[in-house]
Specification:
Layout: E1 4-9, E2 14-20, E3 26-28, E4 38-39, E5 42-45, E6 48-51, H1 56-61, E7 66-67, H2 81-87, E8 93-96, E9 102-105, E10 111-112, H3 114-133, E11 137-144, H4 150-162, E12 166-172, H5 173-182, E13 189-196, E14 201-209, E15 212-221, H6 226-245, H7 253-270, E16 275-285, E17 291-299, H8 300-306, H9 308-312, H10 315-325, E18 334-338, H11 345-355, E19 360-361, H12 368-380, E20 388-392, E21 397-400, E22 407-410, E23 415-416, E24 418-425, E25 434-440, E26 449-457, E27 468-475, E28 481-487, E29 495-501, H13 506-518
Parallel strand pairs: 1-11, 11-12, 13-18, 15-20, 18-19
Antiparallel strand pairs: 1-2, 2-3, 2-4, 5-6, 5-7, 8-9, 9-10, 13-14, 14-15, 16-17, 20-23, 21-22, 21-25, 24-27, 25-26, 26-29, 27-28
Helix pairs in contact: 3-4, 4-13, 5-12, 6-7
Length: about 525
C-alpha cells in the first residue's frame, strides 16, 4: 500500500523530517517535544528501544546500551582506521561481523548492526510524520553525506527498508542544502556548499542555472564534525580533572557522557559569546570520598586552540573541490555554510580564508537539508516544476583481477546515473570460474576501499582466453553500485556470485524489517 512521502535528513547527531505542504510551502515537522530536530540516539532499554529525546536518559542509566553517532559506522568495515579510533572512545562496544562489517555489542551479548540502529531513528521520524498527516508514510527522500561511498549509501537504503520506507532517492546533503536554500530564489549562481555537521564535512560545487542544480564536483572528510570538537573538549577537561583533582574520568563512561553534553552546550554558547560557564554537579567521586562538581569557564580562544588541528582539515577538501570542478575561488559567486558546526566563528573564518570571501551562513542550517529533501519529494511527485538535479559520484570505481593492476572503470565526479563496461577473459584452460575485485576511491592504492570480490561461475570448458566476459557496472542515481555479466560469444548472462561482500543481504533486510514491524512502537 502506498502512502505519503517525506524528506529526511538522517544526521550523525540530529535528524529532521520535512514536507512540502499542499500550498507548496516547505515545513519542518516538530517532535513531540516541540523541537525541529531529533537526537539520532537509540537506548536499548530493558523494555525495548527508546529513540530520540527520551533516549538521553539512557546515556546516564545504561551508556553501554545507548547508541549515538551510528552514522559514522554505516557501511564501514570494522578494521577501518576511523572505526578503530572511534571504538576506543565510545561507551558501547564495537565488534566485527563475519563479513568484516561493524556490529554493536550490547551487554548480554546481543549484537545489532548500524543499519538496525539507523532504522529505529528512521522509524521514529516516520511516526512523527504519520502523526502529523494522520495517514501512512511509506516513502522518503533521504540525504547522505556527499562523501558517502557506495557501501554507505546502500547501508542507508537498507536501514530505510528495515524501517518500512521505500527510498525514492538518496541525495547528497550539500545538494539538498543548495536546493533548500536556492530553489525559491530564482537566481543563477555558482555555489560552493560547505556542510559541517556532527560527523562529516562535505564540500560541493553546485551551479544553479534556470532551475537546474548541477553538481560539478564533491569532496569531503568522512570523519570530521562537531562530535570531534566535543571529544576534544571532553579530553582536555578530563585531563585537567586528573591533574588537579586526582580523578580519572576516562574510566567512567557515565561521567564522560555527562561531560560531553556539558561540552556540547558550552561549544554552542561560544558561537554567540566569548565565554561559557560549564557546571556539572556530582560528576565523580574524589579520592577523599567527596563528590566532584566540575565548574569551569571555557573561553572561545581556548576552544579554538584545542580545535585547531580539526580546523586546519577544513581547507584541503575546499581546494580539492575547486580543482575537481576546474574552477578558481574567484569564480564562486557564494559560499554557503550548512550544518550546526558552521555557526562556530572559527569555522567561518577558516572557510572564508579557503575561498577568499565571507561565507553565507544559511538560515536555520540544521533544517535546510531536510527542506531540500522535501523539495526533491515534491519534484519527483510532479508538484514542483522547473527544477532538475544533476549529481555526480564522489569517488571512482576500479576493477582488478587477481594480483593485476586496478583499472578505473568509473572516474570520480562522473555524472550519475552512469554505466560502464569492462572486458575480462579466462587465463587458463578449462577455467570454470572467473573472480574479480571492485574498489572505490580516487587516490592511491592505500586510499581505495575494497567493495567486494565477485565471481562469474559455471563457465563453459574452453581454452584460456576464449571465454570473454563483459562486466557491466552501473552507478544509479543514488550512487549505489549494480553489477551484471554477459558472456560475449553466447550472449548469455552467467551467474554472478558475491564471494566477499560488505553490507546486509536481502534476506537480512527482510528479516530485520519483519522483526522491527512486530516490535513495540
Amino acid at each position: 500500500m502506498s502512502g505519503r512521502a517525506i524528506g529526511i535528513d538522517l544526521g550523525t547527531s540530529n535528524s529532521a523530517v520535512a514536507v512540502i505542504d499542499r500550498d507548496g510551502r516547505p515545513r519542518i515537522l516538530t517532535t513531540p517535544e516541540g523541537a525541529t530536530t531529533m537526537p539520532s540516539l537509540v537506548w536499548f532499554a530493558d523494555e525495548g528501544p527508546v529513540v530520540g529525546e527520551q533516549a538521553i536518559a539512557g546515556l546516564e542509566e545504561q551508556p553501554e546500551h545507548t547508541v549515538f553517532a551510528v552514522k559514522r559506522l554505516l557501511g564501514r568495515p570494522f578494521q577501518h582506521p576511523d572505526v578503530q579510533a572511534l571504538a576506543k572512545r565510545l561507551p558501547y562496544r564495537l565488534v566485527p561481523a563475519s563479513n568484516g562489517d561493524t556490529l554493536i555489542e550490547l551487554t548480554g551479548g546481543r549484537r545489532v548492526s548500524p543499519e538496525e540502529v539507523s532504522a529505529l531513528v528512521l522509524r521514529r521520524l516516520r511516526q512523527i510524520a504519520e502523526h502529523a498527516f494522520g495517514e501512512a508514510v511509506t516513502e522518503a527522500v533521504i540525504t547522505v553525506p556527499a562523501w558517502f561511498d557506495s557501501a554507505q549509501r546502500q547501508a542507508t537504503k537498507d536501514a530505510a527498508a528495515i524501517a518500512g520506507l521505500v527510498v525514492r532517492r538518496l541525495i547528497s546533503e550539500p545538494t539538498a542544502a543548495a536546493l533548500g536554500f536556492g530553489a525559491h530564489r530564482g537566481v543563477d549562481r555558482r555555489y560552493a556548499v560547505c556542510d559541517l555537521g556532527g560527523g562529516t564535512f562535505d564540500v560541493s560545487m553546485v551551479d544553479v542555472e534556470r532551475g537546474h542544480f548541477e553538481v560539478l564536483a564533491t569532496t569531503g572528510d568522512a570523519f570530521l564534525g562537531g562530535d570531534d570538537v566535543d571529544r576534544t573538549i571532553v579530553e582536555q577537561l578530563a585531563r585537567e580533572a586528573k591533574r588537579d583533582k586526582g580523578v580519572d574520568l576516562f574510566v567512567d563512561p557515565i561521567a564522560l557522557d555527562r561531560l560531553r553534553r556539558a561540552a556540547q552546550a558550552g561549544k554552542h554558547e561560544l558561537s554567540l559569546s566569548h565565554t561559557a560557564d560549564l557546571v556539572v554537579p556530582r560528576l565523580a567521586q574524589l579520592p577523599s570520598g567527596r563528590a566532584l562538581t566540575l565548574e569551569r569557564t571555557l573561553r572561545r580562544d581556548e576552544l579554538e586552540l584545542w580545535a585547531a588541528p580539526m580546523l586546519r582539515r577544513l581547507e584541503a577538501p575546499c581546494l580539492a573541490a575547486l580543482e575537481r570542478a576546474g574552477r578558481t575561488a574567484a569564480e564562486v559567486d557564494e559560499v554557503l555554510l550548512v550544518g550546526g558546526m558552521t555557526r562556530m566563528p572559527a569555522v567561518q573564518e577558516r572557510l572564508a580564508r579557503a575561498f577568499g570571501r565571507p561565507p553565507v551562513v544559511v538560515p536555520n542550517p540544521d533544517e535546510v537539508v531536510a527542506i531540500g529533501a522535501a523539495l526533491e519529494v515534491a519534484r519527483l511527485e510532479g508538484r514542483i516544476e522547473g527544477i532538475l538535479l544533476i549529481d555526480v559520484c564522489a569517488r571512482g570505481v576500479s576493477i582488478s583481477v587477481g594480483d593485476g593492476p586496478r583499472q578505473v572503470a568509473i572516474p570520480g565526479s562522473t555524472v550519475i546515473p552512469t554505466r560502464e563496461h569492462r572486458l575480462l577473459a579466462t587465463s587458463r584452460d578449462g577455467q570454470r570460474r572467473l573472480e574479480f575485485d571492485l574498489w572505490e576511491g580516487d587516490g592511491g592504492v592505500d586510499d581505495q576501499r575494497h567493495l567486494g570480490r565477485y565471481a562469474v561461475v559455471d563457465l563453459a570448458d574452453a581454452p584460456a582466453g576464449e571465454i570473454l566476459i563483459m562486466i557491466e557496472l552501473t552507478l544509479d542515481v543514488d550512487g549505489t553500485l549494480r553489477l551484471a555479466a554477459t558472456e560475449l560469444v553466447s550472449g548469455e548472462r552467467p551467474q554472478l556470485e558475491a564471494v566477499l561482500h560488505a553490507g546486509l543481504g536481502r534476506a537480512d533486510v527482510d528479516r530485520l524489517a519483519g522483526s522491527l514491524e512486530a516490535s513495540p512502537r
